[in-house]
Amino acid sequence: MSTPPLKIGVLIGSVRPGRLADTVARWFVSEIGRRDDMETHVIDLSEPALADELKLTLERSDAPGDAPTLAERIEGLDGFVVVTPEYNHGYPAALKLAIDYVYREWRAKPVGFVSYGGMAGGQRAVEQLRQVFAELHAVTLRDTVSFHMAWERFDDEGRPYDQDSTGKAAAVLLDQLAWWGLTLREGRAARPYDG
């Protein structure tokens, strides 16, 4: 009997117009696509249904009323990769709102990070997010992928100029995510986490 692929949520944490998050997330999703042990589920906080649910917009959109809630989407996944920029030495407010909007659905699941920004490459945002996810009983992964001076790191087609080293960093992160994701999925199935 083969093991079903891990359902990995790629959470795009920026909602700013003109964001680089689309480029970074698209590249990372393509890296996951190279594997057969994972399937990708993108959770973009700028999606109309999520923006409405989280009240990230000032006006109501025409989001479908039957769209799954954020909690339902998080609940059905085995692990996550948060794609986050660094704004003013921290992570975006919309991302904090989305994380806090759900609670038990994060528990006993692994969370990895792909960050981008200026000289720090988003690492200050990641360090803050580690504290937040620890409080939610999620397991954060040690290794990350980060893009320093990110707007200079991608070509016109959205590929990193240094595909070799970024691809290796992504592979390390995804290998860790696979191990933790499978281990924690099996653990939750054998003994529900009530911490």
What does this structure look like?
The protein has helices spanning 21-32, 48-54, 70-75, 93-101, 123-135, 163-190, and strands at 6-12, 38-44, 79-85, 110-116, 139-140, 145-147. It is an alpha/beta fold and 195 residues long. The protein has one domain (6-56, 68-184): Flavodoxin domain (Rossmann fold). Strands 1, 2, 3, 4, 5 and 6 form a 6-stranded parallel sheet that branches. The longest helix has 28 residues, at 163-190. Residues 7-151 form the NADPH-dependent FMN reductase-like domain. GO terms for molecular function: FMN binding; oxidoreductase activity.
> Can you identify the CATH superfamily?
Flavodoxin domain
Anisotropy-based shape:
globular
Q: Which parts are unreliable, with pLDDT below 50 for 5 consecutive residues or more?
A: none
CATH C-level class is Alpha Beta
Radius of gyration from the alpha-carbon trace, in angstroms? 16 Å
Order of helices and strands: EHEHHEHEHEEH
Give me the secondary-structure category: alpha/beta
- Count of individual domains: 1
* CATH topology tier name: Rossmann fold
Average pLDDT, rounded to a whole number, is 92
GO molecular function, one term: FMN binding
InterPro entries: Flavoprotein-like_sf (IPR029039), FMN_Rdtase-like_dom (IPR005025), NAD(P)H-dep_reductase (IPR050712)
Protein name: NADPH-dependent FMN reductase
GO cellular component, one term: cytosol
Topology:
Elements: E1 6-12, H1 21-32, E2 38-44, H2 48-54, H3 70-75, E3 79-85, H4 93-101, E4 110-116, H5 123-135, E5 139-140, E6 145-147, H6 163-190
Parallel strand pairs: 1-2, 1-3, 3-4, 4-5, 4-6
